[in-house]
Amino acid sequence: MHPFSDILAILALGFVAFAVGRACLRGLGIQPRTTAEDLALGAGLGLGILAYAVLVLGLLGVLRTWAVAGLLVLFAAGGARQVPGVARDLVRSVRGWRPGFWGGILIAVTLIAAATALVGALAPPSSAEWDSLSYHLAAPKVYLRHHRIVYLPYDHHSNFPFTMEMLYALGLMLSGHTLAKLFHYLTFVLTLVAMGAFARRFFPAQPLSGPAAAAIFATIPLVNFEAGTAYIDVALGYCVLLSVHCLGASRSDGAANSRWLALAAVYLGLAMGIKMTALVLYPLLLVWVAWDVLRLRAASSPEAERPPRAAAGRQLLVFAALAVAVASPWYVKTWVYTGNPVYPFFYSVFGGRDWGALQAEMYRKSQVHDFGMPSKQGDMPRRDLVAFLLAPYNLVAHPNYYFDKHGSPERVWPTSVVGPLLLALLAPLLLLRRIPWIVWRILLLALAFAVSWFVMSQQSRYFLAVFPLLALCAGYSAARIMATRWESVSGIAGVCLGAGLATLLALDGLTARELAPAAFGTVSEEAFQAYNVGPSYRAFGFLNRYLPSTAKVALYGEPRGYFLDLDYIWADLGHSTLIDYLSMKRPEALLRRYHELGITHVLINSRYAGGLLDGQGPEGRLVVPLLERGALQPIWEGGGVLVLALAPTPRAGGGE
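Above: the chain's sequence. Below: its structure in token form.
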């Protein structure tokens, strides 16, 4: 489809999702205060329902055109009654919107940032989208080829919660990777709307706080980059924001306390169904709810009808159980497939199919040791109190240490930048008076989440779960400072905010400029990927053109299987125990295992294969002898990528 058609498609799907979600909100008795709040809450709920519906189709083995068409018809019918009200509210909201001069400037900055992110969404998935090409898009593509959700023994990521990947599967089926990526971009736009709604509800005395927060969040290069990819971290932040929004509303809107709590639990469950890192937030938000429930009971006067202790406990239990219930389909599926509900984590406790202690240790090291500020004594990131206290500064000043560089540690990627605005604007909150209670709650929540992030894996994108909340606190801080009666302070703050936003926007523009030719069709996708992904893309093209559909490829050092239209496995030792290299004494044992797995060809990307072609490592000591003896024969070579056949195969096409 043409990019413009994909934009129309995502607008239609988003509108239908909003209509369905709005109907559910009305059924729960939730009456949002503003159109923005209605849109943010309703669309999030509707997209979640749509994703879970695709999950059901996948588990039933009917990921086919007729089934998806029927699902969309049912969805449209379910939201049809809401359409007149939705259209009327949107028109009324736009007509009555008066952001003011500075608010208009901040909104203009946000729109420009959203436009740069859209360029990324319209462009083909590039080499920078490593995880998209490895599993966020690749696994759904495999599901669609089999018309069902299948167990992928070589890819432990496919056993993660896959709520967003169900939407990506829908996008791939209806159009292709552009529509799939636009689902994540849609959650980015909805996050901006949700931030505006949050500020309107909780910071009514500071009208600039919403526009400032949205501009700060949208211009962060890391966020802007992710919004245009088929990753999941922005969507996670969106659901976490909605959950906290509902928790705040449950305290400020006592009449609908239980309903708001239930809705908060649903969004928390959706967050846990998007990414396992949200499991850390589960106990933290339970403490939030427990505190509010107990506070409400203690604050009730003796004359008033105090909520009984059992009722307070029941509210907490319902919140906890409902969040688990919403997230549980993914963890139950993973438990059934692997024997471990949080596979591949906690292998020493739960074990796990096609996984071992060696793979668990290699994965742990890749998550813990590869990210964070290295110590002066060596290359290992520090894990002490001083390092924790310095982490906010280091994340801003040295972003490359917290970003997956995929073999390019020397390059400072613009997309890794977090920027100084969050840190610079959060600090003044310690000096301001009469800070809203929810700001302090958010800061405590973020601090607790930061501890787990620091200990487990210091990847900057893993912290995106709380970025929208922190941006709201920063926006509130900016609004308070700019509204001060001291004009010199207000002026300096405005200049610094403007300079910071302009700098970050320029970095966003650099990324968009690289992707624009492919996004708007001035460069063909084939040419773009051949240059961007390089020889691996050409090798994948060769395999797709010349191999029969029954072929199966073992990939070494090249997990980006999205480009393959054939069956494949990741054959590296660290990915699974499918091939037990350590127990194999002779190369013939590997050859036999290839045949048992149905492998007909092997692809090796020497850049990431860790010296395999030099005979290094458990894989290299077995693969190289097979190559030397002619059991594996080269049929394509170029740019450090080698394609081998297990049986004599005449050359088809030329290497490079």
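Strands lie at 552-556, 567-570, 601-605, 633-638, 641-645.
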